């Protein structure tokens, strides 16, 4: 900032008409903050409650939460500032300029998180309720806060990811704001097995599942892939609610294998070396998610 | 072919002149498609409606006008024997309740596949009726809509059509009583500005506050005629479904008078587990189903009897002559709940 401008800004700020700050003002500020906090909690609770009752509109309703949070907290900030000072417009601009610079220097990570939060809310790379892969984590977005995004992993762990990471890390959303989400189900059968029959059974297991959702916009697909030691029968279909992702996979797999057994379709006899099994499963799950996204 | 599963009748043309209330347009549409067939333009017909909506009545009217063979399915079809009936049938075949040809389970589409295979090779005209949700499901899963280019959907009736239909059965000497007038005095709520001085500040703010307008109780607006109010309410409560409207009417009338307050809107607890919702969806799509068929669809992971007990306890499902059906009063709530949760589509 050029010296002249800085001197001018400092002069503007030194002439800020500060109110007399007494116990009453402090109490007033505390009340404003408490009201804002309670309001955010109440609105979050009500919107979440309503969204659970109308699953089809869960995403649009819950996306109001971070937006309202920002509006409420900024309104509270406005009231707090005006309890302390009563500036004219030039002084206000000067104040925010200096305030911003101070924040930028001292609390730049926090500021980056807040800006990241605003970008997430308006650009919507993901929304509350989405299943996303963010860095190394996969889970359902529980909350988009001013500072961080909270994910719940399939193992029910709560992961807090700072919002600024949205600028540097790739984020993939499995459902992009929709309650229905594509799920990939793979079954590995013996290379000698009747692939046609195996595909037909998996198809019927998918389309008769209690978790499936099929329409023109949400179609299902069956694919066959030949590998040296097995045939992979892959079904891609949408689960009616992304929260049922794993139940859907499990139900379809279980029912398909019962029918396979009746027809003599056996699983692949190839056995991965003990040490490689976990690695295979991990890399395979990751690959399946990438295929879906 | 087991007798209880299907009934086969041959129609030999018009028997008597009767009026079909409410579905006049749909009947004309179907007649026009049949006439097109007689002139060489072949389009199989699917008549699609909710349970109780009267699609069987509509096809009965069609059967009176043409030389047809009618096959009526009454429960889930497990054998392909009905196909042999199709070979010997008239050129126009009416197949009522075709949703009984498929079961939502692995291997449950064999009868439907066989029928579609026959249909695709046949020169005969098929007039079929389907449950709305079964039709949507099978169209998504089996491309059913490709086999039936002419789809006639029975839409909900309006109050006027329901009135015509009801009066055609009961006569027009019904006495309508608007006894709900005194009970329906509604309080109107408006927002008033209450000025509050913010603590520790001299600023006065306007806080919106709900205001009860009691004068609406004392200054009653002129109400509509009692018969209009009765049929408006009947339409709302039944969702415009003529079968349900008839049942509600029968339950409400104290012949020859009917009171507005006797047509009650019921509320139901639809907070269900995924298994209960799935079974409810199956009952809705099949319209009526026996315990054994339901258990086959549900598989071992659902305790069918326990779930049915819960559904019946909440009056969402009823049992009639060994079949589980949706309680007609709950149909609106059931549809809305299952659609919202994407259990039916």
Key descriptive features of the protein:
heterodimer; A: 293 residues; alpha+beta; five-stranded antiparallel sheet; four-stranded antiparallel sheet; 9 helices; 53% helix; 17% strand; B: 345 residues; alpha/beta; Rossmann fold; Arc Repressor Mutant, subunit A; 3 domains; three-stranded antiparallel sheet; 13 helices; 13 strands; 40% helix; 21% strand
Q: Can you walk me through this structure?
A:
- The complex is a heterodimer of chains A (293) and B (345).
- With 293 residues, chain A is an alpha+beta fold.
- Chain A has helices at 3-14, 23-53, 58-62, 64-84, 89-106, 108-123, 195-207, 245-263, 274-292, and strands at residues 131-134, 137-144, 148-152, 158-162, 171-173, 181-189, 212-213, 221-226, 231-239.
- Chain A is elongated, with a radius of gyration of 27 Å.
- The two termini of chain A are 45 Å apart.
- Chain B is built from 13 helices and 13 strands.
- In chain B, the strands form 4 sheets. In chain B, strands 1-3-4-5-2-6 form a 6-stranded mixed sheet, with helices on both faces. In chain B, strands 11-13-12 form a 3-stranded antiparallel sheet.
- The model of chain B has no long low-confidence stretch (mean pLDDT 86).
- The chains are: A alpha+beta (293), B alpha/beta (345).
- At the A-B interface, helix 2, helix 7 and helix 8 of A face helix 5 and helix 10 of B.
């Amino acid at each position: 900032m050029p010296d002249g401008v800085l001197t001018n800004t400092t002069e503007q700020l030194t002439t800020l008409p500060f109110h007399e700050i007494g116990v009453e003002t402090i109490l007033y500020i505390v009340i404003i903050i408490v009201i804002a906090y309670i309001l955010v909690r109440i609105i979050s609770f009500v919107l979440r409650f309503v969204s659970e009752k109308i699953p089809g509109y869960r995403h649009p309703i819950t996306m109001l939460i971070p937006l309202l949070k920002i509006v409420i907290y900024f309104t509270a900030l406005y009231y707090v500032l005006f309890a302390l000072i009563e500036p004219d417009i030039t002084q206000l601009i000067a104040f925010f300029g200096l305030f911003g610079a101070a924040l930028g220097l001292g609390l730049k990570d926090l500021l980056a998180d807040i800006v990241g939060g605003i970008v997430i809310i308006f650009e919507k790379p993901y929304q509350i309720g989405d299943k996303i892969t963010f860095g190394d984590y996969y889970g359902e977005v529980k909350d988009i806060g001013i500072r961080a995004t909270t994910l719940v992993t399939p193992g029910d762990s709560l992961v807090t990811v700072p919002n600024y990471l949205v600028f540097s890390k790739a984020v993939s959303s499995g459902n992009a704001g929709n309650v229905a989400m594509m799920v990939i189900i793979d079954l590995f059968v013996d290379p000698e097995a009747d692939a046609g029959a195996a595909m037909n059974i998996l198809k019927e297991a998918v389309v008769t599942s209690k978790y499936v959702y099929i329409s023109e916009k949400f179609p299902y697909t069956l694919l066959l892939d030949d590998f040296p030691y097995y045939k992979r029968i892959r079904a891609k279909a949408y689960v009616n609610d992304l929260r049922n992702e794993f139940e859907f996979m499990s139900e379809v797999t279980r029912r398909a294998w019962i029918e396979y057994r009746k027809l003599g379709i056996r699983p692949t006899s190839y056995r991965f070396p003990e040490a490689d099994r976990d690695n295979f499963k991990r890399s395979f799950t990751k690959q399946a998610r990438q295929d879906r996204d | 072919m087991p007798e209880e599963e299907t009934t086969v009748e041959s129609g030999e043309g018009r028997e008597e002149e009767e009026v079909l209330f409410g579905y006049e347009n749909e009947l004309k549409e179907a007649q026009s498609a049949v006439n097109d067939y007689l002139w060489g333009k072949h389009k199989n017909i699917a008549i699609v409606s909710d349970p109780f909506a009267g699609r069987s009545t509509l096809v009965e009217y069609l059967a009176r006008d043409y030389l047809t063979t009618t096959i009526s399915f009454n429960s889930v079809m497990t054998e392909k024997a009905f196909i042999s009936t199709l070979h010997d049938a008239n050129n126009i075949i009416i197949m009522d309740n075709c949703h009984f040809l498929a079961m939502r389970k692995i291997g449950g589409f064999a009868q439907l596949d066989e029928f579609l295979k026959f249909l695709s090779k046949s020169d005969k005209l098929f007039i079929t009726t389907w449950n709305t949700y079964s039709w949507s499901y099978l169209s998504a899963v089996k491309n059913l809509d490709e086999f039936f280019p002419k789809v006639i959907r029975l839409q909900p009736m309006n109050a006027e059509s329901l009135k015509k239909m009801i009066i055609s059965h009961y006569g027009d000497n019904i006495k309508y009583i608007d006894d709900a007038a005194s009970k329906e005095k509604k309080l109107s709520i408006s927002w008033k500005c209450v000025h509050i001085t913010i603590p520790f500040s001299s600023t006065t703010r306007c806080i919106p506050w709900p205001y009860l307008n009691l004068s609406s109780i004392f200054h009653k607006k002129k109400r509509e005629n009692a018969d209009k109010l009765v049929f408006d309410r009947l339409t709302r409560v039944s969702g415009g479904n003529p079968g349900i409207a008839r049942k509600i009417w029968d339950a409400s009338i104290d012949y020859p008078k009917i009171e507005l307050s006797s047509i009650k809107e019921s509320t139901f607890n639809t907070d269900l587990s995924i298994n209960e919702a799935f079974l409810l969806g199956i009952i809705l799509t099949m319209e009526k189903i026996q315990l054994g068929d339901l258990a086959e669809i549900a598989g071992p992971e659902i305790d069918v009897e326990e779930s049915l007990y819960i559904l019946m306890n909440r009056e969402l499902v009823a049992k009639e002559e060994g079949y589980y059906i949706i309680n007609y009063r709950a149909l609106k709530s059931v549809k809305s709940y299952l659609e919202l949760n994407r259990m039916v589509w």
